Amino acid sequence: ENLLLLRDHMGVRPLYYSAGHDHLAFAAEQPRLQYEPPGLGQADIAGFLAAIAEYEPSLRGTGGICRVMPGECVIWHKGRAPRAQRYWQLGLTEIPHETAAEQFHALFDEAVRARLEGAKHPAAMLSGGLDSSAVALVAETYRAPLPVYSGLHPQNPDQDESFYIQKVLAAGNFLPHDLDRDALPPLALLGASLREQGGLFHAPGLPVSRGLYKAAAQDGVDVLLDGHGGDEVAWHGSSRLMELAAQNRWGQVLRLLPTHCRLYGENPLVALQIVAQNSGHARALPVRALRKANRLFSARGAAPSPAWWRLMRREVIEREDLADRWTASKTGPEACQSSDRANQLHALTAPLYAHAFEVFARINTSAGIETRYPFCDRRLIEFCLALPADEKFRPGETRSLLRRGLRHVLPPEIAKRQDKIDFLPVIRNGLAGPHRVLLEAMAQDATGVLGEWLEMERLRGAIESFLKDPAQSDGDMVLTLWRLASLHVWADISRANPEAAAQ
After folding, report:
1. Chain-wide mean pLDDT for the chain?
2. Is 27 helix (H, G, I), strand (E, B) or coil?
3. Which of 2, 268, 482, 491 is the most exposed place for a label (fewest CB within 10 A)?
4. Are 302 and 294 spatial neighbours (Cβ–Cβ below 8 Å)?
């Protein structure tokens, strides 16, 4: 007659429930509580098309199904409504530590070791980036030879990370398994992924990653270690310049500016102008001179309106309150402007962070595998968040804590690596090539679904411009077309087989 439901600190494992007057049903998978096919509400579709990640306890369109939120418990007594309360949450107490790098290494080592416990046939994802390389190399010290799974782009050298993967393989005892991502168009499994997820999802690279999960499961792997979460936990210092500028420490701003711009691909003059304007100390720098220089050097000016805004019908934007919802989703607490640690806290508790775990969990269930995330270890997260920002972002070195802490573990080529492979060109080339027919079908809009949301003439013009010169389309337009393609495919699935859309 009394029941307590607890979800883990970061929400790695989903947990849902549905309550009645004298009963409460709960499950780790939403469909197990669903007796009728779920519907996508207007607010859900609008939010998806506008790239708004919303994550609330109540699931719209599911007849009363709720989720236990990360770090919360739900208390239920027979005859009473369930009551949710927090049992844990991250805080912003700063703890300077003289041996931060060494302690990070110890905590990370323990986080990996703990996630190998109970695994009969473990493996790890290996992309060649900092996070997956760190996980694989530490795990290999406990369970060698360790199988590792990598996605390669042999026909697209700009997207291929084989060089870095080989450096990791040479540093340990591994059993490599490769998936040729070029052999499969990036949206080929979009329909299957939509069915698996039961609807729309914010993860353009999911259909390809899904192939690695399935391959590992077919090889008998029961636990797959993943480096997801490293960006948010080890942290790259995205607000460090703002923090220093708010403290009037312009010398430090200028020292870190090249590293910041290399990470985000920004023009230094534009970055400096933004920092000066938003820090509250605009008079400390000649903002007018910076603006003039930006124009002279053709630097990027004010950001254009997002692509979805230009394509969507005005009445839909107003009806769904998209302007305010979008602004709220992109704007963190005011403290984020002057505190890099506050910005890190916001990233760790953002809706998209927890949403990703639910997406991953559905892949795991479908593949029959369990994925574990060492970077999401509670002790590691609390430690990293408590450190001063200068432990994480230093001149010439983003994510400094991880690089220094694992300097004797990572190969030099990995430890010094500052870039990341951008997956957007893969999707862009797929839309312009093997998925061109999908864009043409979207322009025709046989289901009429896109026409409910968009100005179709504008969409046709955008598709025509994209196909004419795909290389000139920015990432925002590519992702917008991907989201529209997802809605188009989901509409076809729902129309052809409503029950299959819910499976």
Report:
1. 87
2. strand
3. 2
4. no
